[in-house]
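User: Teach me something about this protein's shape.
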Amino acid sequence: MEFNLILKNAINSPSLRPTSSFTAMIFTDSDGLELAGFTDRISLTNEALGLIDNSTATITQTSYQPDEESIITLAFDTNNPLPVSSAIEILVPFKIPRIVNEAENCFVLLNDVRFDDKCAFTGKLISITNLFSSYETKFVGRIELNFKILNPGDNEDLKVEPYKINIYDDETMLYGIDKLDDFLFPILGCEYPCSTCLSNDPYHCTSCLVGKPTTPHFLYWGRDQEKQTCLDFCPDGYTSDGTDAPRQCKPCADTCATCAQNDLPGDVNVCVTCRDEFPYFWQNRSSCHSTRCPEGTYESNTLDCLSCEAPCKFCSGPGTCTQCFAENRLKYLFEGECLLECVEGYTPIDNKCVRCQSPCNTCKFGQVDACTSCDNANGN
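Assistant: First, the predicted structure itself:
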């Protein structure tokens, strides 16, 4: 014969401590006649700790500056009613350099009533015992845990490990009641990755963490961003431009889509690619142009501006001049070349060799119709 034992309206133990055993159980029929007996011990045990409601939990500090001592206050509402024998354990995150083990700086408020001399320190562990012994019944309400620490030197990894609070049913701390271990993180005045920030905005960086290769160290305020932040490297359209103390991402020149990342002064003006409004790219000068290639270059099929060969001022291709430099010796343009002087039958007009007008075979300098010899056309 198989029996199922159902206990209705049973109240769970508040902790993980097993209940007292059920013993000498007797099963009877409706008339009270014994059907079977059971003498093995049965106890009830919770499988998981109670969870303190994160919405009731807060953390405050007396200082938010790196490397300064600060009184930390961790506050929360109870989840389960706490027996008078209950004890509390606080595990401080690895990021906190040390706890200041001063008894006068460790105290507890229970519903705003202060209790002193309840703390014991072991490394990064704070144990609080004999706290509820003055209560005649189980405690329910607000708990505020106060202790002194040395703030971290920077805010890297502050969100990796929180303060962990465990509440036990007695000072042996073997059987837990409630826990809070995923919400209360250390705080500094500026949020990562800022080293310093605006006084009214912890996310708006004014400087970045330095001296640590793993942290973003370029100060960046993008054209489409509301806040200044810190980056590992400058994005497209920006360059460090050789800045130092603080390192910054500066916008490339208006003509550049991207610019050099050589960490040198002047990189902002060294275009690597061009904005759509400035499609002509002169590789030799790393510059971008809007309507045509600059003097001394010619346009390739890909809108690259390639340098003309000397002595061309403008050219249509390699070795084909379209204009010569007026200040050079080879300044007269003739059939794609720059000459010292025009060939016979031509004279310079605006630095171009222009054919003398018939009936002139040759003509005076700069005068196409002032013959110095005739071409014998029509008997002349």
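Now, about its shape. The first strand starts at residue 25 and ends at 28. Residues 125 and 255 are 59 Å apart (CA to CA). If you'd like, I can walk through any region in more detail.
User: That's plenty for now, thanks!
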